[in-house]
Each structure stands twice: as structure tokens, then as C-alpha cells.
Amino acid sequence: MGLSGTEGGSVKVIIIGGGIGGLTLARACLDLGLAVEVYEKRSLETMLSGPGGIFIQRNAMRVYEVLQGGNIRDRCYATGGAIQEGGFFSRQGEILYASSPRAIQEPDLGLCLLRPDLQRILYEALPPGIVQTDCAFDSFEPEGETVRVTFQTGQTTVGNVLVGADGLYSGVRARLQGVERLPAPLYSGMCCWRGYFDATGLALDDRYSWAELWGQGDRFGYFHVGGSRWSFYGFTNALPGGDDTAEGGPIPTLRSRFGNYAAPVPAILEALAQQDQPIYRDDVYDREPLGSVWGQGRVTLIGDAAHPVQPNLGQGGCMAIEDAFELAKYLATAAPGSVAATLRAFEASRSDRVTKVFQSSRQVGQLGQASHPVACFLRNWLYKLLPTWLADWQFKWLADYRPVWPAGFEPVPQTEK
């Protein structure tokens, strides 16, 4: 038997944050017959934007295969680019490691698409009125079997469960810790540029749907996000708080960092200069794992609000998607009167996996951002010697996640907007 609300109806889940995790959780709740409200501090236009592209790897794509009768999965594949063969290369273009869907016996390794495309697909998978924008979270107050949430406008709402899906600087997490703002996150020592470009006329190797080239203290990657569109990213070791002003903007800065990389990187930089698409620069942060308890009472966290990771594995968004499905499943199958225990069980069930992603992502970042010439030589040499099957095996556990609907539950898909 699943949870019921205080009036005998369905439990109501209040979600703070309209990013990937929050929107996915809303859809999963609806599929399982749970009432849901999503509140986002940004405007709708800003919520449906975002820098560059994102990897939705096979583990997370399996969630979209089952939500809304597979409609989200279908729309993603109609928009984005399947992750096929790709790999790590030296700055000179020498292959160090190649990955393939054959390693997990699947037709692909998932999907890449632009963040705005994914945001719009998820938003349009929800009925009108579910998402309220321009609503910045302020505080919450437990009230018996409910939680009252107050927004900075003075507006309030009441639900049975509150979920913070509000990212690295989560206001919900801050209030759980009894503070107005969280302490500063942990700086990784690197910044990242992101954007996308039209690859028409560029000589990209059609054997690869993604590639990442490793230099000394920097690396450059690009990946297919559907049609002729490709996304790029560039990392470099840097002090926090920097910008591109001193070098004349992002294009001159990117040229100075990555202009000596092997083809097709110089051509990509030229395409970025000619096409004048937005290029975003951000410092990269994470936070130490919370352990097996993330929330209190009827309040919990998902995604970056609970376990922000560096982007080196392309699994940050994927973990939020997994969180969303698992939390909805726990709520749908919980016994009445067990909300707090159910949320703590959900948190404990996710702790080991997200902690492993946190640790592995840091390790890959340390390898990719190595700056001493000897360390870089040894890194590249070891990767070339490492058998492909062994390199694949290191990360096979990421693809092993499989979402399963609760026994006896029939999903209730709802139509798009």
C-alpha cells in the first residue's frame, strides 16, 4: 500500500528546483499516482536554457525508457545524438582508450543532447500548472503530517513531502543545516568552458560520436548532440573566480589554451569564432558526500543538492535522474505513517553508489588535469597499454543500474502539454 495524504487522497510531493532532477521526479511521481508541485526560482525562459550539452548515459536513459510510457526516451532520441564509439586521445591526437556500446552489449551508450532541449522535453512531459516559475524558496516548517513551504514572495504551500532538487547551492539543504546559506563548496582547481557549434563542413572523424583530448593541465572534448550540432567543453587548471577579460574574451582564451591541440580542435575553435554562439565559463566545484542521511523528517534531497560531483564522468545529471526514479518508487510503496523512515531508507539506498561516483569522478579529473610532463607521459603510456576490456570493466558498474516499477503498480502516463 502506498502513502496517502492527510485527507485520504494521494500524498503531495513539493519539489524545489526545476532542473533535470526535479522535472524527472515530477514525471515519475505522476506516473505512480502521486500529486506533485514543482517550484523554480528562475523564469521559465531561463529554466529552459543552459550551457552546452549533457551526457544521458545508458543507466539514466533506462529511466526515460519507462517514464511516461517511453515518450521522453522517444523525444530525446528524436532530438539528440546516440553515444556510439568514442575515446580519450593525447593532445597530439593519438588514441589512448576507445569505448564502444559492445562493452555493455547495448545498441548505444546512451544519448547526448543540448541542455535546453532536455529541459524542454522534461517540462513538456508534465501537465500545465505543475511547474511554477519565479518562485524562490525561503524556508520550510514541519506541521504534523505535512510540511509548510514559504517562498521569498511570501507565498506558501503545504505538502506531505519536501524535496530539495535545487542544486549546488541548495536552499533546502541550507535550511536542513539550520543556516540561511550553505558554506562555500570545494573548488576542484579547474574551470570549464562549454558551448555548442554547427559542424557542417568540419572534418570530424565519423567513427566517433565523442572525443576528449588530454594535454598538460588542460583537456578539450566534443560530442554529438543531434543533427549537425556538436557540443564542446574545455577544462584548464586555474585559480577560482577568473574570467576571460584579460585575453579579450572566450575565443582568444580558448585559442591560447587549445590552439596547439590536434585536429579537429583548431577547426572547432574557428567554427565557434565564426558562429558566435554563447560560450559559458564556470569554475568546477563539488561537496563531500553526506553519507547515508541527507534529510530530516519529511524533507529530503536529490541530485546536486545532495551529492554534487565534478563532471569528469558525465554522471552528475544521470545520478539525479536515478535519484528521481528511486525516490518516487519509495514513496509510492511506503506504508502510511512512515514518511520519515521511507525517506531515510531512500537516502541510505543511494549513498554508496553516489559516493562511488563522487570518488571516481575526482580520480578521473586528477588524471585528465595532470600538468607535470612526466606525469602526463606516464598517464598516456599506461592508458595505451591498458587492455580495452579492463578499461571498460572499471566503469561497467555505472551502466548496471536498471529501474524497475514497484510490484503491483501500473504507471499512469499523462499526455504532453
Count of runs of 4 or more consecutive helical residues = 13
Query: Could you name the ranges where pLDDT drops below 50 across 5 or more consecutive residues?
Result: 4-8
Terminus-to-terminus distance: 30 Å
Q: Outline, from the CA principal axes?
A: globular
Explained architecture:
The chain is of the alpha/beta class and 417 residues long. The protein is 34% helix and 24% strand. It contains 13 helices and 18 strands. It has helices at 20-31, 44-47, 58-66, 71-79, 115-124, 171-176, 250-258, 265-275, 316-333, 339-368, 373-385, 388-394, 396-399; strands at residues 12-16, 35-39, 53-57, 81-82, 86-90, 95-99, 110-114, 131-132, 137-143, 146-151, 156-159, 161-164, 186-198, 210-214, 218-224, 229-237, 280-286, 299-301. It has a 7-stranded mixed β-sheet, sandwiched between helices. It has a 5-stranded parallel β-sheet with strand order 8-2-1-12-18. A hairpin with a 4-residue loop joins strand 10 (146-151) and strand 11 (156-159). Helix 1 (20-31) packs parallel to helix 9, helix 3 crosses helix 9 and helix 7 packs antiparallel against helix 8 (265-275). The longest helix has 30 residues, at 339-368. It is globular.
